[in-house]
Structures are given as C-alpha cells and as structure tokens.
Specification:
The chain is an alpha+beta fold. The protein contains 10 helices and 16 strands. Strand 2 and strand 3 form a beta hairpin. It is globular and about 70 Å long.
C-alpha cells in the first residue's frame, strides 16, 4: 500500500503516462460479513481491466503484456485483512501502485493517459490528514494521522534519536544532579534539530501539526519560536517511544473537539453566505459553480453519495449501473473545488439540514 498523498505524490500521479494508464477501483469492507466477497470482487474487476486491455486496438501487444503484469503484481500486494472502504490500483507500463481509502469508491475500470485521482483527493480531504510529532529527551518520532488511523512516518529524517549516556532523568533529579532534563544543552540541541527538521517537512507537505511530550519539552519548543507557534500541544509524555494506538488515544479527545468546533464554524459561514446571497446547495447547482471556480467553501456530509447522469445543462438522478451513470459525482465536485482553491470541509451527517448533503459559500 502507498503512503500518504502528499502534494508531490499527487503531482506525480497526475502527470501523463504512455497509454494505457489503467485505474481500477473497487469498494472494500472492514468487517464480516460484508468483506466476504471482497477478494472475489477484486479479482473480477482486475480481470475486467485485462479484458479491456485485450480488446483495445490502441494497446500494443508489448504494452498489454507489461500492464497486465503490473496488475498482477499490484493484486499480489493487496492484503484485504486491513481493508478500509475502498481500493484503488494504478497500473501503467513499468509501474503500479495500490491505495487503500477510508472512503467508498464505485467499482470502475478506466483506461486513459493519466490516472484517475479524484477519489484519492476526496478521501484525503475527508480524512483531514495531520502530523504528530512526539518528543522526548532522546527521541523524536513522527506520526502520520488521518481519519481513524495513526501510523509511524519515516520521512524528513524522522525518527531522530540520540544516545543516552549515563542518562537516568528520574534518578538525577532525585539526587539533585540535574534540575530539568530539558535544560541540558545536549537535549536543547537535539530538540532544536527536531524543530528544524519538522519545519522543513511542513514546507514540503503542510498539514495541521500536533506535538506530544512532557510539558517541559513543549515549553522548550515554544522557546525556539518555530513549529510550536502554530501546533496544537498535547502534554503527554512517553509517546515518542509509544505505539500508534497510544498516540491515537491521546489525540482522540482533541480531534473530536476540533471536529465539533469545525462543524459549528462551517454552519456559521454558510448562514452568513445565505445573508449575502452567496449560498448554493444541491448537486446540480454546485456542479456548475465548481466548474466555474465560484466556490469559496464547500461543505459535504461525511457519508453523502449520489449517482447522476449528465443531461448537458444539468444533472439528473440515476441508478448505479445505468448507462453513462456517474457514481462519484461528489468526489468530482470535491476535486474541482480543491483545484480552484476552495476550502473543503466534511461535516457529520445531518449537519447541513435541508441542504441535502452538500452546500457551499460562493465567492460571487
């Protein structure tokens, strides 16, 4: 499975490929009994992709063989034991990638000269990815967070460690040999290096940052005047040597409160937009507004989905499997809004009231 979707990774995914660049999407399930058919369904959709390669006269025999082998390699890498809500496989001559998404995707096979990225983009926006930096006197660990997941991230020089020479903070404080571990010059230098490394990483992949550690460590980072100025502090020690589960548990109350606060802020912004007559709701109106670049703030209920057909000047409801049905129209709108600089927020189901799952504050 691929790591988080950084701006650089997304740019790389979107670059043109030699035809055919194959995108395979299939829904997956986290639990029984719903996941019983996931393996069969995945094999069937990959088989469908191979049939499309066989029947496409624009695909040479050499490239057909190459891409089919890439699909087989990707299939071998999938472990549905850890499935989320959707799976995306990208395969092109000489390369393949597998992405697990915490968001539903429609079953689909697309042959083009670029990969289909809208579902990845929408899933990332829904997950609200963030960084967690856990610091101690001898280790700085970076965690990649989003949705319900926290995993250790090995990027930007992290994890950073230093050798503990005659280092027993509790004993030394008891005997009065050291008033505070974090006043030690070597420790200060170590945490300064961690601060600089995190600053560089945030420039390359900006996200909200949470810092965990003893209060003395957080105060020292504050003193440096770097990353701590805009980060959320979580004063809990031990997590630099901890597990992803422990980090997730420590952050959960903070994340839950921020989600509630964010939903309230979105509601206020939408109400203000109504007063300015800059409010839009419903797929048909928002689809056009997104294409025109008019959306400033897009709000989407977390589990809102819809299937439509494009009737030319408007969208009409459709059933999954209908000819020309667009089952991921919500993800299309999300991606289009992000590309035009809109702020996209996912809110709890029902939070938008009569707006029917999706609403926006417009620029004009």
């Amino acid at each position: 499975m691929e790591p988080a979707l950084s701006p650089a990774t997304l740019s790389e995914l979107r670059r043109p490929r030699p035809y055919p660049a194959v995108s395979v999407l299939t829904p997956t399930h986290r639990r029984e009994p719903d996941n019983a058919q996931d393996t069969v369904r995945l094999r069937n959709v990959v088989a469908e992709a191979k049939k499309r390669l066989e029947s496409d006269p624009a695909v040479t025999r050499e490239r057909r063989t190459d891409v089919a082998e890439q699909l087989d390699r990707a299939l071998a890498e999938v472990d549905l034991t850890y499935a989320e809500d959707g799976l995306v496989i990208f395969a092109a001559p000489g390369e393949h990638q597998v992405w697990s998404l915490a968001r539903d995707v429609p079953e689909r096979v697309v042959l083009s000269d670029t990969f289909l990225t809208r579902n990845l983009v929408s899933a990332q926006a829904a997950e609200r990815p963030f960084w967690v930096l856990s610091v101690s006197a001898d280790r700085a660990t970076l965690w990649n967070g989003g949705g319900e997941r926290v995993t250790e991230a090995r990027a930007g020089g992290f994890p950073m460690t230093r050798e503990r020479v005659n280092f027993d903070a509790e004993r030394r404080q008891r005997i009065g040999d050291m008033p505070s571990t974090f006043r030690d010059e070597d420790t200060r230098h170590f945490l300064r290096e961690a601060d600089l490394a995190m600053t560089a990483l945030l420039r390359a992949d900006p996200r909200p940052l949470y810092i965990t550690g003893e209060q003395a460590a957080l105060s020292l980072l504050d003193e440096f005047g770097g990353i701590a100025r805009t980060a959320v502090h979580v004063p809990q020690g031990g997590l630099a040597h901890g597990t992803p589960q422990a980090v997730g548990q420590a952050l959960r109350p903070v994340l839950d409160e921020q989600a509630r606060s964010g939903a309230r802020a979105v509601a206020r912004e939408l109400d203000a937009a109504r007063g300015r007559k800059a409010f839009a709701a419903g797929l048909d109106e928002l689809w056009q507004s997104a294409r025109d670049g008019r959306v400033r703030l897009l709000a989407v209920e977390e589990n809102y989905r819809a299937t439509v057909r494009d009737a030319g000047d408007h969208l009409i409801p459709a059933e999954a499997g209908d000819l020309d049905a667009r089952e991921d129209i919500v993800d299309e709108i999300v991606e289009q809004c992000l590309e035009t600089g809109a702020d996209v927020r996912f809110v709890p189901d029902g939070a938008l009231g009569d707006a029917a799952g999706i609403a926006a504050a417009l620029r004009y």
